[in-house]
Design a protein that fits this description.
The chain has two domains: about 140 residues, HAD superfamily/HAD-like (Rossmann fold, 3-Layer(aba) Sandwich); about 90 residues, DNA polymerase, domain 1, CATH 1.10.150. Helix 9 links the parallel strand 4 and strand 5. Helix 2 runs antiparallel to helix 3 and helix 3 packs across helix 4. Helix content is about 50%, strand content about 10%. It starts with a strand and ends with a helix. It is α/β, with parallel strands linked by helices. The chain is built from ten helices and six strands, in the order βαααααβαβααβαββα.
Length: about 240
Amino acid sequence: MTIRGVLFDIDDTIFDYSASEETGLIGHLTAEGLLELFPSAADAVEVWRQIMEEEYARCLAGELTFAEQQLVRTRRFLAHAGRLPASGLTDDEAALWFGRYVEFREAAWAAFPDADAVLRKLAPAFKLGVVSNSSLAHQRRKLQMVGLLGHFGDAVVCSIEHGAAKPDPAIFHAGCDLLGLPPHQVAYVGDRYDVDALGARAAGLRPYWLDRAATATTPLGGVTVIRSLDELALDLLRQT
């Protein structure tokens, strides 16, 4: 079946979110004098990520807004560190604390080294777009800052505005609509096996699981496993 378009996840697929998150958090906690409260920097990052996963899931479920989940994460993290004031934090205070973290994180923002070159290779032969579980303004700004937004133009759909998050088929289909293509003519590339690969497969797209850490050990029915975006380009371009 001919593939005419490719949709991408953003975080930890074309954009190195985990590295920027870790670097940003450690820099922020060091500046705030909080890193010493944890057994190690790795422990601090683990706590931060666990809280983020839990509260961001609530955001995607519609229980919290994008901004509210940041405030809740801040309060929970400081409570874990024993630095949440007895009177708590006002929304403004929590937002300022999170904002200082964001400054460190954004200073470390970067695309993966293979992203720009591969997108340039694919652009002449395929329509390109993005489907992301996040906020549209946040993700477009991120792509702009790392030099990737131009590859996608207006073909960017995000769950906060769309109203459904991956793995719901509706958001994958919304991405296909932006490309003007039926799902069976669109490939989807993401770093999450459950949310990205299985979600795309269920929605009728051709799924590529970007397993940069090489964790896959058994064949996965209907899912193509790749270790880099270069492998994606080779696989797609030899079919054109």
